[in-house]
User: Fold this.
Amino acid sequence: MKALFIGGTGTISMGIVRRLAEDPLWEVYLLNRGNRRDEVPSSVKQIVADINDEFDVRKKLEGMEFDVVSDFIVFDEKAVERDYRLFKGKTKQYIFISSASAYNKPAAGYVITEGTTLANPYWEYSRNKIAIEEFLMKKYREEGFPVTIVRPSHTYNEKNVPLGVHGNKGFYHVVKRMQEGKPVIIQGDGSSLWAVTFNSDFAIGFTGLMGNRHAIGEAFQITGDEILTWDQIYQTIADALGVKLKPYHVSSEFLSEVGEKYGYDFRGSLLGDKAVSVVFDNSKLKKLVPQMTTNVPFHKGVRIALDYVFAHPEKYEEDPEFDAFCDKVIEALENAKKSI
Assistant:
C-alpha cells in the first residue's frame, strides 16, 4: 500500500512516518521542501516540492495514485481546495488533520466525543479547521470524496515539553525559570483537566485508520487515555528537573487581556482551548483500533523530551521578553493584593 504525506516531518507526522517506515505493508512518500532529510527514515521516498506550487506538484505526481494521502500543513480553505483538486480520483482515502480545539468550549458536558458541537469564537485557527471539515464532508456527501477527519489534542514529541503558558519562542524559557527557582505562570487555578499524548502513541491511532474502509466519511479524535490537571503537568516537569515547583496561578481572562499588549495570543490558546477541562471519550477510535492506548505516560514522555533538550541546547532559544512579561504580571498581581 502507498501513502503520501505532505509535510511529514512535524511533531505529529514524524511519529507516523517512523511507525510506517517499520511496516513492510506500507510504501511511504513525503512531499515537502526537503529541509529535514536527515531526520527521515531511509526507506521513505522523498518528493521535493512546494505544495503551494500546484502546477509543479501535479507534474511531479503525474501517473501516481495512493491508498492514503494526508496533508499535515492544511490550515485554511484555500489549501484544502487545492488538495481536493490534486487528489480527487487519485487516492482511496484523504485524512485531514483537524484539531480538538475545534470543539465548543466549554462543551455542554466535559466528556468530549466526536459528536460534540464544533465552535470556537476565540481562535481563528480552530474556526479555519471547522471550515475545512465542512468543505471536505460536503465533498464526501455529494461526490463520495473519501475523507477521514482526525482531531488531535495536545500532542508532543521528544523535542517538546507541553505547557499551558509560554512565550512566542516556545517552552524552553519556562523550563529555565523552573531551574532558576522562579515562579511559573499556570492558567486558572491549575485544577482544570487536560490530555497530553506522545506522538508515537498518536501514531498508533492514526495508522490504524489508514486504509480502513470503516473510517471513510467519519471523524475520530486521537488522544491518549491519561488525564492530568495542569498543576500535575507542571509538577511532573519540575520533578523531572529535580526542582521545586513554584506555581503562580493567573486567570486566563487576565492573561488574554494583558498578553495581547505584548503580542501573545492567549485568547486563542487559553480561552479557546487550554483553559477549559477536557476528557476525551475515545471509544469510537478504539472500536477500529483496539490497540490504541497510552504507552508513553507523561512522567516518561517529559523525561524523554528533557533529555533531548539538554543534549541539544543549540536548538532552543531563550526568551527574555517572555521572562520579563512573567515578572511584570506577577509583580502587578502581588501589588494588587497589597493595595486591597
